[in-house]
Amino acid sequence: MYTTALIWLLLTPFILSLAAFAVRWAGSVGVWMAEALHLVSVTVTLVLTIVVVQGVLAQGTVTAANDWFHVDALAAVFLLIIGVVGFLVGLYSIGYIRNDLQVGELKEPQVSLYYGLFELFLFTMLLVVTANNIIIMWVAVEATTLGSAFLVGIYGHRASLEAAWKYVMICTVGVAFGLYGTVLVYSDAVHFLTAPGTAVLWTEIVKNAASLDPTLLKMAFVFVLIGFGTKAGIFPMHAWLPDAHSEAPSPVSAMLSGVLLNCALFVVLRFSIILDYGVGPELPRVIFLVFGALSVIAASLFMFAQKDVKRLLAYSSVENIGLILLGFGIGGQVGILAALLQAVNHSIVKSLMFCTTGNILMKYHTRQLDKIRGMLQAVPLTSLALMLGALALVGVPPLNIFISKFTIIGAGFQSGHIWLMIFILLALAVIFAAFMKALSSSVFGEMPEGMDKGEVMIWGFAPLAALGLLIVALGVYLPPQLNALLNQATTIALAGQPAMNVDVMNIVKLLVP
Amino acid sequence: MQNVNLINSLSGLLILTSLLVIEAKTLRQSAIQYGIQSFVLVLIFLALASTMEGAESLYYWAASAFLTKAVLVPIILARAEKSMEGQPAATVRPWASIALAGASLVVSFLVVNSLQLRIAVEFKPALAVSIAHFFFGQLCILTQKNMLKQVLGFCLMENGSHLTLALLAYNAPELVEVGIATDAVFGVIIMVILLVQINKSLHTLDVIELKSLKG
User: Is residue B12 within 8 Å of B129, Cβ to Cβ?
Assistant: First the structure.
């Protein structure tokens, strides 16, 4: 049953994407049909994701097509992010795109195109995290760029086309490095895994990682980091990210930031596990620490100077990817567990934030922070969502990011990276100031003259409320299933190092010697 | 052995043709040169397929590469060029291109020589050329002002990485190679569609004009 669910999980968004493209020429009926197809797609994806994750909890792994697809607990964590965020942002999309249609930003055929591309994007990301074949993993990451490029440039404005061009160019060139890393690993593995069909499988390579050539493996990892790191938005390969995130329609920004970056990071993680087994965890740890710290520190400086609300959030994504990398770099059970939790928490908060900026755009028609004023008066619900998200992002307790962020920093201190953590704390203080500056000017104050009070899209608020609820709930309670999943995922990422089953909400206690 | 020499020599031809791609007077000529280069790549695939054991899937790849890289992509690029306006003048002089290609080759030979490969040992020259080709393609993207030339840089880069793939993963399952080839063609198609849209809105192909996003 679980295998069938996995196959349909991949097929559903792909088939429905083609169907959405097909109804492009059906005028206003086509819009309705595309919306219906989209609704079915995101709902079925969510349901099947939950089934597959249950399968992983019940039997450890779910596989399909001769092991070409393999979902273990680590993949399941990322799958869950795609399923949940994809569903909620997918729901938000319907209202947002309807508004774009109403105000003339998009035309009817473009709406079907949007949904077709959204489903395709969803499919490619699902393919990234479920693929066990390392070359297909690369193909899928490359396909995420191709699937989402037109989504970034869908408005056809000068700036959005420019962002789409930079996105495609930087990411395809970057990800090409990833192909070299992948091929180097394969070409070495095929030497002793004589059946070529098995030498492409991550599970088989991991089992035999000790036989891989250490120099080649290290070189491959550098290629992988440059390649997939570009896609994950790691500094200094992040150049595409602020442009694409800010110019894309807000729900797409939410998917790019909340889901796509994690998928790319997942691939880097898969390769670092091979390296851990092959030559030990020292090299990936150092690389993760260096790039993680650089990302957080650089992002903090960019954020402080930001005047565009979506670019502010985009750089915040660079910061959070940096924090996740730091967690993996610190390593050990606590570091890795906190990093995975941070990935989950950040994806939820950032999707809420980007959807919120969607509401702001609908009301204020600008992203410039100095022109967004008096939100509390004009759009009280949206301003509450914005405040909640911003407080969560800076790590205020008891909201969800607090636990993961605090634990990463704590684990850093505990493992002896004291100076590094002091720099990170300074950067986080700058980020705190940047958010407070942005919030105080936009939420409070007088709303612009002539603006009517009230939300543009009240019924579309449900997904935002659900995301807000998750932010609050996951700050105080973690469902036992998610707790178990995160523990199992950590065991996989620890690559053979011993791990004990812990209560993730009390993970901080592990920091006390 | 004969085939090994043939493959290494044909790989050398790739670098030569890539210089012609970049230095051609018009984009139409560049596209044709790219088609010729891709044909050389197809010949390498065929030679590899007949030389290496278990490399039958390379025959399929040769066929699909002929259709896509040697025919389809040059046609797409030549047609796209017709409909576009505002082409910037060349930024890189021919001697600079030759120097860049030479530098890529030297670096790649050094890298490949330091590698302890367990397969394709006899193809080290071809492997070095493939990596050099990959870097040369990247350098084109970085140095060319003309966005269509940047797309050609991407194509050169892909030809390089596909040769590496054929040399090091000649026995990979067909579906893997189909996946990579599909990504490559869609990559070019998407870039060209975006370029057509950009050209309609900005009336230029000069990448320097893309400056509305900063900070």
Answer: yes
Q: How far, in Å, CA of B150 to CA of A161, rounded?
A: 16
Nearest CA to CA, how far is B26 from chain A (Å)?
A: 22
Q: Is residue B212 part of a domain?
A: no
* DSSP sequence for A192-236: HS-SHHHHTBHHHHHHTGGGS-HHHHHHHHHHHHHHHHHHHT-TT
3-state secondary structure of B206: strand
B158 interface with A at CB cutoff 8 Å: yes
- Output the average pLDDT for chain A: 93
Single out the residue of A308, A267, A336 nearest to residue A494, CA to CA: A336
Task: Give the confidence band of B103 by pLDDT, cuts at 50, 70, 90.
Answer: confident
d(CA A199, CA A190): 5
Residue among A172, A22, A245, A231 nearest B191 (CA): A172
Whether B214 maps to a domain, the answer reads: no
Dist CA A406 CA A402 (whole Å): 6
In terms of Cβ atoms closer than 10 Å to its own Cβ (0-12, 13-18, 19+), residue A416 is exposed
pLDDT tens track for B158-169: 899 889 888 888
Query: 0.80 cut: is pTM over it?
Result: yes
Does ipTM exceed 0.85?
Answer: yes
How far A475 CA sits from the closest chain B CA (Å)? 33
Q: In total, how many domains does chain B have?
A: 1
Cα A459 to Cα A468: distance, rounded to the nearest angstrom: 15
Helix axes A400-414, A380-394, angle to 10 degrees: 10
Query: Contact A159/B212, CB-based, under 8 Å?
Result: yes
Average pLDDT (B193-214) is 81
Beta strands in B32-156 (DSSP E): none
Instruction: Note whether residue B184 is domain-resident.
Output: yes
Distance between CA atoms of residues B46 and B42, nearest Å: 6
The verdict on residue B182 lying in a domain is yes
- Distance from first CA to last CA of chain A, Å, rounded? 45
Rounded to 5°, angle at Cα A421 from A419 and A426: 100
Q: Return the pLDDT at B34.
A: 92
Q: What is the chain B residue with the closest CA to A149?
A: B190
**Which among A88, A107, A87 has a CA at the least distance from the CA of A97?**
A107
Copy the structure tokens of residue A145. Answer: 């760029």
Across the interface, which of B161, B186, B212 has its CB nearest the CB of A180? B161
pLDDT of residue A26: 80
CA angle A303, A466, A448 (to 5 degrees): 50
Give the pLDDT confidence of A427-440 residue by residue, as tens digits: 999 999 999 988 88
- Which tens digits make up the pLDDT trace of B118-140? 766 788 888 888 888 888 888 88
